[in-house]
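Quarterly update from the structural biology core.
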Amino acid sequence: MSGVHAPLAPSGMGITVACAGSRELCSFFPEDEETEKSKEGTAAHFVAAGNFVNENSIDIGHVAPNGVPVTLEMMEGSDLMASVIGSPEGVHVEEWVDCSVFHPLCGGTPDFWRFNAALLRLDVWDYKFGHRYVDVFENWQLMTYAGGILARLQAEGHNVDRITVAVHLVQPRNYTSEGTVRSWTIPISKRRGYFNIIEAACYEAMKPGALCTPNPHCGDCDGRHSCDALDGSAMIGVERSGESTPHTLEPGAMSRELKLLNRSMKFMKDRASGLEEMIEFTIKGGKRVPGFDLKPTTGAKVWTRPIKEVITAGKMMGLDLGKEGAITPLQAITKGVPEDVIAEFSGRQNKGLKLIEDDGSKTRQAFSDTTK
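Predicted structure, tokenized:
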């Protein structure tokens, strides 16, 4: 995983294959900063790569280069990644791979890969720290990396038509019946067909005015709030939701309608999430958006005074508030500490802003306050 991305990055190849216009659309809305989730993912990759290269060189308490503290989950994910790969011999870790076999502007940084010349086998591993399930079957990101590596091996004199290619996804925080480690061997007979699709998608995506196509990846597209194609599909879903359906449907009709509704709801959710981000950005910029406002959100109540003071205050009231530090404010209340005392020692942490629908009550309240 790297902070440098080519115009046609393998990490976005799933979107590129599904929607040629996404690349150009997203170029109009570059990300100004990483989200908290992406920062966490970057830190997790730092831990996994660092500990694989230098065993146990990073531990809980360290801070990743992007400022994110190393957590127990990151350490556990790092251990899982290392156990899956096994011996570090011959493993390439976060090295740039030229994928110009598909397009001159295509290239990226796979997390781990290894070519075993004796077994004529190429393994490519991708580490995902997110919770959302990612399918390894026909994974365009991994196939793009594999294609770039095979081109390199061919240039070194290897007969790539005899090389078995296996791709692997390691997701320590995604729990499914398939497990946290999922693998797929790309059939040699179908490999050229997959690579042709990637190449065609790359060249189509680089055409000015390439068409956008609503697809399951729309929720990950940074330009979804300005996508006419997604907007149209979402509005079809809105219109469809207002139609009446006969009570009696034959199985085929039920299946078709449910698939249509599920697809429409997905498009509507993707469109809505894009609009939410745009509205939040607009309000933060000082502009008013009719019907919406931002309000502060808070987390659980936490101690705001030093833990020693909290424990001392408890002892003065004959209560033990210690628990390898101090118990939580809520637990202290259940032990009998008066809430006014709790209020002096605790508070709620600000967790950012949340978009809410505004029914006009805040405006009415503001005018009411000025007329008192």
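The mean pLDDT is 80.
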